[in-house]
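Much of our argument rests on the idea that a fold can be written as discrete symbols. In the encoding step, the backbone of a single protein was reduced to a row of integers, each denoting a local shape. We regard such an encoding as a compact summary of how the chain folds. The record that follows shows the chain in one-letter code together with its fold in token form:
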Amino acid sequence: MDLKIMVMVCFFGIKKERFKVGRAVLPKFYLEDVGLEIFEVLKRGGKKVAVSKLPQVMVEDFLGEYLEIDVVVGRELKEIYLVGKADKRSWQRLPKQKYPKPLIFHDGRLALRPTPLDAVAIFMGAPFGFNLAIFRILISKSLPTNISTPLSAFSGMYLTTTMPKNSYSLSNTEKGKKSKGLLYVCNHKTLLDPVYLNVILNKSVTGVTYSVSRISETLSLIKTVRLSRNRDQDGRMVESLLNQGDVVVCPEGTTCREPYLLRFSPLFAELGEVIVPVAIDSYVTMFYGTTASGLKWLDPLFCLMNPTPMYTVQFLEKVSGLSKSCSTSSNGVVSKFDVANHVQSEIGKAIGFECTNLTRRDKYLILVGNEGKV
């Protein structure tokens, strides 16, 4: 009865066809709760049937898609063998490399599994985290970098920076004559990626974004410029910004929480004379600072609400860009697609991420059911 009441309270008024959490959130938590031992047993069997008291809509997407198991809800069976609590305590958690299918996209704000203890920690820590996030925003907006950075570190924010083996000056000058600004190309983990680059470089950079809320733009420590997704218009915009200074771009077009890289748009390869690949990884303890279906203006707040958010930033060897006249592969000329794939590959190697051909559109179709246009 208590389970039925809980389910009713949680799902009252939600239509089955709109139950996106089934494919966007629950697969992650279910996979993290699978025991390695029982998974190995299931792999050896023939037909697999799962018996559950939970509503079928909650489990069919996960069990059907990831484990290829038929779901039986609320049916009585003649013979049942139960796994004891002692057996479960000795189980090892199923490692990610053994997932039947890779878990690349998922949504929801919680980075922790909502176990009873973790749920208590989240509810108790959320008010403190909110005040901590406000404090971090205020010191970053009101104080100079040489003061705000140590204070941010004191508040629990960790940042690790690595330069290439053949260290170079992060500037773009030729014989005393200023040329175009550097184009920093990085993978996308959170909205704070360009901000961290600005802090590390200790110089002004411009971040170009596809869709960001007005509140996030207001809170940003750096200049941000919106792209229109019109190729020619965006190309002219970025080229104009490069003539004024350094620019940061995330060619994936959206964030990816797991260790995978989405396909890089090749537009940047045509625009920058000198491209600096930047490999970024982040770690959060309680909340994800990204969302596909939630309120995007809360992204930076949730990111900064984590007690000890960690960032690692690696600057890689410079790559030469292409002029627009050389944007197609002919007569041995490297194409813009080759440059984009090379940069993606180098970033993936640096942080151990797997390169994919998935795009921003794929992510939003899977998680939200639309193409992610704002």
